Amino acid sequence: MKARLWHEHAREIAPKPPKLRTLTDLRGLRPREADRANQELRRWMSGQRFDWPQQQRVHTLLSDCAEDNEILGHGAKEIFAVDATNGVGKSTMVREWAMARYKETVGAAIKSREIPTWQPSPGIYAYHVPVVWVNLSSAASIKEFNTSILKYLDYPVEGTIRSMNLRVSDAIDNHGIRLLVIDDAHLLNTRPTQGRDVLDHIKHINTELGERDGTMVLVGAGLADHPLLKDPQIRCRLRYHRVTPMAIDTVAERSEWQDFLFRVEKRFLPYLPRSKPGLLAGQHAPHIWRRTQGFVGDAVELVRLAARRGVEDESWTITRTHLEDVELKVRAETHARAAARSREQSGKRPSPARESYSR
Question: pTM for the full model?
Answer without folding.
Answer: 0.90
